[in-house]
Amino acid sequence: MRCKLFRSRLHAMKTSKRYTAVRLGAVAAVAAAALVAGCSSSSTTSSGGSASGSKNTAKVPLIVYSAQGYDSAMTKAFSKATGIPVKLDDNSTGPLLTQIEASKNNPNWGLLWVDGSTAFAGLDTQGLLQKGFEPSVSWNNLGTASLPADKSYTPTGVTLMAALVYDKTKVPNPPTSWSQLLSPAWKGVVGMNDPSQSGPTYPFIAGMMNYLGGVSQGESYFTKLKNNGLIVHPTNGPTLQALTSGQIKLALVQSSAGIGAVLGDKQLTVKYLDPVTLLPSCIGIDAKAPAAERAEAEKFVEYVLSPAGQKVMQSGDPTGDSLYYPVIQGVSPLPALPSLASVKTQSINPYTWGPREGTINTWFDSNIVR
Q: How far is it, in rounded angstroms, from Cα 163 to Cα 122?
């Protein structure tokens, strides 16, 4: 099975438009050697621990599933620094999680990098993530608070969900609480994202449920919001476009997207209703990937949190995902971000809310989106 999987991945690379002829030649040479030398015996270590102790040092393609705005810049920088070839599958979080779910018995990804620790807790409870790996870095308080006990995923940054974005020339007196969004004054002018598409949106919904006291209380709130004319778009971009086009007056989006919109349009501003939910971006490694690929994934995590990697994160998407709060000591957030001390935040337990994601998203799409 491993040889067949290796050949299928090589074939997929040969037919992919993302690979140059030069890279294909290098990868093909590695693959040919691996097929001759490695197919007679398995090189996979136990999925219960780190793969860094593997003796297999062949550079196989690292398949990266990511919804981060700087992922292309990061994968290119990582390949240049290490010589490890990377195949990037960039998409919204929802479709990426659907791909992982569809391939559970024959996974074809090496690592996942998206926003929301709830998604990783859900994968971890299904046994899909490698446990026991943690990079050797100096975490700050945000990083320490975002680490899972079993070391099944690694935080890489924190944003907030949801930020309230509006045009200050058109909305001189914005709402000051979550309950005020239900007022007739805001009927038909509030927009947000679809959690089945937008990774940051489910933690926002779960955060509201946590804040209001439970799932039923949260369902009641969003039902009232819908009855007050809530408009749902797939992701941050379309929701913000609805704001600038005048379809809505208030947009509930990820803080990085909201701050980025303000940088491009000085009439816009961002407000945080109390509380907003902390949203860690995380990387998880496929527990069923070959040992060599898991070892490369560990190197990728280490690179992302290195000084060089942090520079890429903060420059690769300067009006979007680069607007995050760092999780390691010695790295400061970009100047456009407000002090986190000025915002009332809450954390939610990813292992409480992660396993509920599918059920709650289905309820939201059936009762709020439609």
A: 25
CA distance 117 to 247: 32
Measured CA angle at 154 (ends 88, 101), to 5 deg: 55
Considering the entire predicted model, what is its pTM? 0.84
- Give the end-to-end CA distance of the chain in Å, rounded to a whole number: 43
- Torsion angle defined by CA atoms of residues 220, 354, 259 and 113, in that order, rounded to the nearest 10 degrees: -150
Return d(Cα 370, Cα 357) in angstroms, integer.
Answer: 18
Q: Are strands 250-253 and 190-193 parallel, antiparallel or unpaired?
A: parallel
- The structure tokens listed for 199 are 């990774």
Decide: 251 and 164 in contact? Cβ < 8 Å.
yes
Q: Please write the tens of the pLDDT for every residue from 169-191.
A: 999 999 999 999 999 999 999 99
Instruction: Please spell the DSSP secondary structure of 260-298, one letter per residue.
Output: HHHHH-TTEEEE-PSPEEEEEEEEEEBTTS-HHHHHHHH
Q: Which fold has domain 2-157+280-315?
A: D-Maltodextrin-Binding Protein; domain 2 (3.40.190)
Helix (H) or strand (E) holding 8: helix 2-15
- Residue 94 tokens, joined: 């929802």
CA separation for the pair 354, 123 (Å, rounded): 8
CATH class of 160-278+339-369: alpha beta
> What is the per-residue pLDDT across 310-335, written as a single tens digit (0 to 9) for each?
999 999 999 999 999 999 999 999 99
**What confidence score (pLDDT) does residue 49 get?**
67
Pairwise CA distance, residues 174 & 191, whole Å: 14
Matching fold, domains 2-157+280-315 and 160-278+339-369: yes
Domain-wise residue ranges, the chain:
2-157+280-315, 160-278+339-369
Q: What token pair was written down for 96? A: 């990426």
Segment (H or E) for 211: helix 201-212
Let me know: does 278 contact 347? Beta carbons within 8 Å: yes
* pLDDT less than 70: residues of the chain: 1-49, 52-57
* Distances in whole angstroms, Cα of residue 318 to Cα of each of 169, 234, 249: 25, 22, 25
